[in-house]
Task: structure prediction
Amino acid sequence: MARFTIGVVVGSVRKGSINQKLAEGLMKLGGPDAEFRQLKIDDLPMFNQDLEAEPPASVERFRNEIRAADGLLFVTPEYNRSVTPLLLNALSWGSRPYGHNSFAGKPGAIVGTSAGVIRTAAAQAHLRTLLGVLDIRLIVQPEAYVHFTDDLIGPDGAIADEKQHDFLKKKIGKFIDWVAVVAAARKAA
Amino acid sequence: MARFTIGVVVGSVRKGSINQKLAEGLMKLGGPDAEFRQLKIDDLPMFNQDLEAEPPASVERFRNEIRAADGLLFVTPEYNRSVTPLLLNALSWGSRPYGHNSFAGKPGAIVGTSAGVIRTAAAQAHLRTLLGVLDIRLIVQPEAYVHFTDDLIGPDGAIADEKQHDFLKKKIGKFIDWVAVVAAARKAA
Amino acid sequence: MARFTIGVVVGSVRKGSINQKLAEGLMKLGGPDAEFRQLKIDDLPMFNQDLEAEPPASVERFRNEIRAADGLLFVTPEYNRSVTPLLLNALSWGSRPYGHNSFAGKPGAIVGTSAGVIRTAAAQAHLRTLLGVLDIRLIVQPEAYVHFTDDLIGPDGAIADEKQHDFLKKKIGKFIDWVAVVAAARKAA
Amino acid sequence: MARFTIGVVVGSVRKGSINQKLAEGLMKLGGPDAEFRQLKIDDLPMFNQDLEAEPPASVERFRNEIRAADGLLFVTPEYNRSVTPLLLNALSWGSRPYGHNSFAGKPGAIVGTSAGVIRTAAAQAHLRTLLGVLDIRLIVQPEAYVHFTDDLIGPDGAIADEKQHDFLKKKIGKFIDWVAVVAAARKAA
Result:
């Protein structure tokens, strides 16, 4: 049994999403210590405080999945130099209701990919400050601004580009070490 | 007939939204030069590129309303130190499809209110950088971080607090002057 | 005589600065309408409110140069995903003393170059929100994230890469059009 | 002997700085587990890569002090909705030279005070994303946007306002717990 469960939140659900492809590649890099579970976010309604009294089942499921995770990996596209509405919406639901933030204290990390020149750098900058406010304990380094090309992912869904593979394996390894640090402290407390 | 049409985008639609109340108060401050029209955004689906080929009617309506406006006033709550998913979603739809950004070149301004201590300051900081990327020509000063209290809005929906009224009238006046500058240049071009 | 004076602020003064080289290339792209003047910022002391009562001559000179400019072009490196201390310091001095912001109402634009993968994207995101607060009227599009390579600048200091040259000429042209819009309105007021 | 040494970095050195006063008050709240040491930053020269080959003694001292600290507390004013040039400059020096970032892996927290309405909220938002990039492991909650009034600090330099005192004691307590988590992991590694 894996020591840690990592919830994976992907900011795009369009067909052929390159961040979804990257996420699937990343989930193969954890080794025996980590079990990755992608959290479904596209059935959450648009956040509206009026829905909070009786939230739909999708909201409860999402919150429970966050709470069950030992760490959270965010895989983000960049829209207009920020995160997607889909991702921001998931963050809103998970942080609420007031005083019951499901994200509190969880270790987190960010990766993003784009075929464009700045490689989600502005989206990640914004996401860093957002996740901190949600009381997620981020490990930012090494930053992962992944350039998407047709060769990045192989036919088996694994990261095929050797240089990217090695870098991202190191990134995920450092993140899992960080999950271990924070999870151990949570258990002790 | 008013010289300028100002589209108003409000980041919250919950019942009793304080930013909706503020927006209604602001729309009374324009004088004869400006006609305010609130743009409906809560019937836009969650943005997904797969919907772009055949977007729902609400999307077309929203884009047409943006294009018809001489200026855009954003009234924003703050969620988790950023804008609401609802507002970010409207920005995504308006900016697309690629190469057909409805916001391009429009003069814009931001106001926000909160009952909390930082008064939407972090949301506005993020929104400034977002709107610039959408090619909205912002006038930021004077910044309007409105503290919401029960006395802010009177029973007639107007801004009742005298100090806030005078400040916000000045803010809206400066924004309309700015709309005139940018609109004149657009006509000349 | 050129119609507009454009003050150029470069965020690095190290020997061989690639942003300085880019700035020199950009200053050749203005055509007859624009005269570029680089503003010296490396003789400004570190900002400290205690120095405000009797600021050194360099501060007065810098403020006068800003006031004399019809527009401001910022050429920024990226340090640790933000602007340089040198640039932030210049912004502080120019914005003060309280109530006497030299930047107020000036049209502005941003360009940046880096040899790294994200091409100053995070620095520019931060600078956008900063400059708005200083009451600079930004035109953000087209965004200019310039990849620096040895071929970018020719031996004569001009932008040698043809694709970059054409793109940046368009960027500068749009900026000068924008300066014209804002400057005309300022004269009329 | 205290278990942890906390380096305190204050973003202003003007006479009568309210953030300096707050920092002194905060340093009394640590209890027996923490020894606070303010790190001097106003003798660092303006960062310039040309100085890196032979940095002045002040730079070496600052870097050694960071390395010696078990945690870092940042007390920040807000200038133009961002941090001060003085603080950004200290971050630059500490993060360099390339590959030798003194901040790497240190637990950190942010507090700020202002007499104005938004209470350093925008400065802290920017600082959060900056510190993450420096590989500082931040604990953001509870956020501390301290309203400065004449009654905040007593004649003995302690935090006199009872409500603020209790809140900030809790903030510092949570930070020290966080320092313990990260420091234990560093020792184990």
